[in-house]
Structure formats: C-alpha cells, structure tokens
Amino acid sequence: MPASLRNFFRKYVLKNFALKLVALAVAVLMWWVVGRDPIIEIPMTVPLEFYHAPDNLDMSSDGPLQAQITMRGPERFLRQIDPSEVHAVIDLQGVVPGERTFELTPKQILVPRNAEVMQVAPATFHISFDRSATRLVEVQPRIIGTLLSGYGITEVKADPSQITIVGPQKRVDGIENAVTDPVDATGVVGKATFTTHAYVSDPLVRVQKPGAIHVTVTTGKPSSGTRKP
Question: How many domains does the chain have?
Fold first, then answer.
C-alpha cells in the first residue's frame, strides 16, 4: 500500500475510530426508531408573528390573532415539539392605514424538521390598521369596602392623577378615563394611602408607562360632600 494512502487511512479513517463507530451506531438507531415510529397528526394553537410591522401603525382584529394548525409526522418527534418551535408568519411589508385581509397557508408555518403542516385554520385574517396615538386621561380610583358606622368618604385623590395611554387612534379617542384596581377602604378612619395600578377597558389600548398609582382616601363624619364607597 502506498505511503500516501496509508497516511490518509490513518489520518481520516482510524483517527477517533471508536467515536465514529458510536456516531454511526446512533445514526442507525435513530433511523430504525424513526422507521418504526407511527405517523400521526396532532393539532396545535400558535400565535401569529408579524414581520416588517410598521412602527407608526397599530393593528386590531375582531378575533384572536392565532391559528390552529395540524401537523403530520413521526409520533415520537411530534410529541416532543414545543409550541415555541412553531411559527405562523404574516408579512406586513407595505401596509397602510385601513383594513386588509391576509391569507395564512401551510407554507407560512415554520415547523421543525420531520414535521409537515397539513391544515391551517382560519385560513384568512381580517386586520385593521390605524395610526398610533397617545393621550392623557384622568385616573379614576375604584373604592370598595365597608366603613365604620357613622363614617363616609370625604375625599379621594390619585397620584399621579393622569396617565398616558397609547393605541390605535380611534380606540384611544374613545377612552374617557383609566380605572384603578379595587382599593379596599374598609375600616379607614381619617386618611389612608394605598398603592395600586390603573388600566383601561379596551384591550387594544395600553398604559404607556405602567407604574404604581397612590390612592389617598380620607374619611370623616357625614357632612355635605361625604359619600359611601
């Protein structure tokens, strides 16, 4: 055997020969397992992911922005797939304010190897796009609880008294105020301050910088201007 061939054999074949045998055995075992694994179909619900979403537009939809897909493949592999490994992608390149319908096909579903997308539902999504807007709104404390007999609320203050909300222009314009989580004033005599948070009822409008809201409740004997919680 020529020396060059012996060197090649020694360098590329015999080097780490045991590891190569193990790798070959593992590959053969995997092939055998996959070959014996039954082919099944499983459903999975995944959120939509949007590419090239414009910064100056907010989107809204009447239904949830998620899809139920049906995948087909070897049972052992499908059972191990995590929803985070599946991506339903819609490209928003070039969208403008208004309404638009997007198709979602199996080709737009990115799944791990050995899995095949058989069905997507729904197959279309109707999405509205509106210019993003911000606005200052008043914070309205929500007071609950039972006061001591003979006492009523004389004053309620929120700090800060206003917060900035952000969302689609039409939705933002429809918000009158932000409401705090319930503040339980049970048993308050005199003045007490509570820490809570504020929110808006529209799920498409959010508080721009969420933070603590300090609500001060003052109680006293009934008089003009006194109210029950």
Answer: 2
Report whether 60 contacts 130 (CB < 8 A).
yes
Same-domain status, 204 and 159: yes
Supply the pTM of this predicted model. Answer: 0.58
Range of the domain at 178: 132-220
| Complete DSSP assignment for 195-206 | EE-EE-S-TT-E
**Within-domain flag for 151:** yes
Looking at residue 161, its pLDDT comes to 96
User: For residues 153 and 226, is the Cβ–Cβ distance under 8 A?
Assistant: yes
DSSP string, 31-57: HHHHHHSPEEEEEEEEEEEEES--TTE
The mean pLDDT of the chain is 86
State pLDDT tens for residues 181-198: 999 999 999 999 999 999
C-alpha–C-alpha distance, residues 126 and 117, integer Å: 22
